[in-house]
């Protein structure tokens, strides 16, 4: 079958190669074979092309963690799934529920384990989640990493109506966070350096927007918007370069959901505000199958439709990587496999 592999640490596009790979043979009793219909990209996938990071540096490896597809064969002991079911694999293949374990953390698709940018994949029946009925495969393929990460960040912080949530940028996690927080009745604040992207965020439900290119001390604007109180939760995707301002944006007793590292990881921000204001900084590493099921239920109940920026054909996967690397997108970049 056809698949893509990351064959070096040369980065985009040199590291990515389309190859013929041997399809897994006879299924084990609890395994499921899935025909992949669509995949999507995350920032982490760019890092994998440059050699990866701890627990995500298997090489060579079939890339990408996010996919949606159709069950075409089930093992002899499978009871949860039948041929024709539409499913999505969890980002962490061995993280069914509860707290993250070392084994779970090492089971990331497309980094620690073989990923999903292939015509077919094989997964444990326990590592799959049903596609929300109203979503296409392209839309569903955006959920496993960015969607679950945003859901974990918001629900673990106890999101409730009336809360105020700060979203940094308009990438996949931030846009999902915006859509989920808006659906839950929270007030949302979105930052970006692009007025065009901020306009799109408004269309997705953002209550307040801040252009950090025009307002470099954007934490002061956050405090103005919240009447000096600060927000309840920040989905912090920037990392060290934005963490200090995020800490200044959060209320006493609030939460920083630490998700990404888009800025220089070697910067050393002061965490004194977290100490003085009893704030929680919580690392978010995607989530469990149980959390994914919770997200899927929320997406279906609220008829949330993921924001797709652009879709590429399977044969254009390298071009999809190159486009994604430019970071001009709002929402998700999708690869249609069939």
Give the N-terminus to C-terminus distance in angstroms.
13 Å
Low-confidence region ranges: none
Annotated CATH architecture of the largest domain: Alpha-Beta Complex
For the sheet with most strands, the description reads: 7 strands, mixed
Q: Using the CA coordinates, give the radius of gyration.
A: 20 Å
Structure classification? alpha/beta
Tell me roughly what share of residues is in helical segments. Answer: 25-40%
CATH class category name of the largest domain: Alpha Beta
Number of strands: 15
Mean pLDDT: 95
Per DSSP, what share of the residues sits in E-state strands of 2 or more residues? 25-35%
Q: Which term fits the overall shape?
A: globular
Total count of domains: 2
The H/E string reads: EEEHEEHEEHHEHEHEHEHEHEHEHE
> What name goes with the CATH superfamily of the largest domain?
Medium-chain alcohol dehydrogenases, catalytic domain
CATH topology of the largest domain: Quinone Oxidoreductase, Chain A, domain 1
DSSP helical segment count: 11
GO molecular function, one term: oxidoreductase activity
Domain Enoyl reductase (ER): 11-335
Organism: Phycisphaera mikurensis (strain NBRC 102666 / KCTC 22515 / FYK2301M01)
Pfam families: ADH_N (PF08240), ADH_zinc_N (PF00107)
Report what the structure shows.
GO terms for molecular function: oxidoreductase activity. InterPro entries: ADH-like_C (IPR013149), ADH-like_N (IPR013154), ER (IPR020843), GroES-like_sf (IPR011032), NAD(P)-bd_dom_sf (IPR036291), Zinc_ADH-like (IPR052711). This is Putative oxidoreductase. Pfam families: ADH_N, ADH_zinc_N. It is a single chain. Strands 3, 4, 5, 6, 7, 14 and 15 form a seven-stranded mixed β-sheet that branches. It is built from eleven helices and 15 strands. 48% of the residues are buried. It is an alpha/beta fold and 338 residues long. The chain has two domains: 172 residues, Medium-chain alcohol dehydrogenases, catalytic domain (Quinone Oxidoreductase, Chain A, domain 1), CATH 3.90.180.10; 137 residues, Rossmann fold, CATH 3.40.50. The longest helix is centred in the middle third of the chain and has 14 residues. Helix 5 links the parallel strand 8 and strand 9. The protein starts with a strand and ends with a strand.
């Amino acid at each position: 079958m056809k698949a893509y592999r990351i064959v070096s640490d040369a980065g985009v596009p040199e590291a990515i190669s389309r190859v013929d790979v041997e399809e897994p043979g006879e299924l084990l009793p609890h395994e499921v074979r899935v025909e992949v219909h669509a995949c999507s990209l995350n920032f982490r996938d760019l890092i994998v092309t440059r050699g990866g990071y701890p627990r995500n540096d298997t090489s060579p490896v079939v890339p990408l963690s996010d996919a949606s597809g159709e069950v075409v064969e089930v093992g002899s002991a499978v009871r949860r799934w039948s041929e024709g079911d539409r499913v999505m694999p969890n980002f962490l293949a061995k993280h069914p529920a509860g707290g993250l374990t070392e084994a779970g953390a090492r089971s990331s698709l497309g980094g620690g384990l073989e990923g999903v940018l292939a015509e077919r994949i094989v997964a444990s029946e326990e590592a799959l989640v049903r596609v929300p009925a109203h979503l296409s495969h392209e839309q569903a393929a955006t959920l496993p990493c960015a969607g679950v990460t945003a859901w974990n960040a918001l629900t673990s912080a106890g999101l409730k109506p009336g809360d105020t949530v700060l979203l940094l940028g308009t990438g996949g996690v931030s846009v999902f966070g915006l859509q989920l927080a808006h659906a839950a009745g929270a007030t949302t604040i979105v930052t970006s350096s692009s007025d065009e992207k901020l306009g799109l965020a408004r269309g997705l439900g953002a209550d307040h927007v801040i252009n950090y290119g025009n307002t470099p001390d954007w934490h002061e604007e956050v405090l103005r918007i919240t009447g000096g109180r600060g927000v309840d939760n920040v989905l912090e995707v920037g990392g060290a370069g934005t963490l200090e301002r995020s800490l200044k944006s959060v209320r006493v007793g609030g939460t920083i959901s630490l998700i990404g590292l888009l800025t220089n990881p070697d910067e050393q921000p002061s965490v004194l505000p977290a100490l003085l204001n009893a704030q929680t900084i919580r690392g978010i590493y995607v989530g469990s199958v149980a959390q994914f099921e919770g997200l899927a239920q929320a997406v279906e109940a609220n008829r949330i439709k993921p924001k797709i920026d652009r879709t590429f054909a399977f044969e254009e996967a390298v071009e999809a990587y190159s486009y994604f690397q430019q970071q001009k997108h709002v929402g998700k970049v999708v690869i249609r496999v069939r």
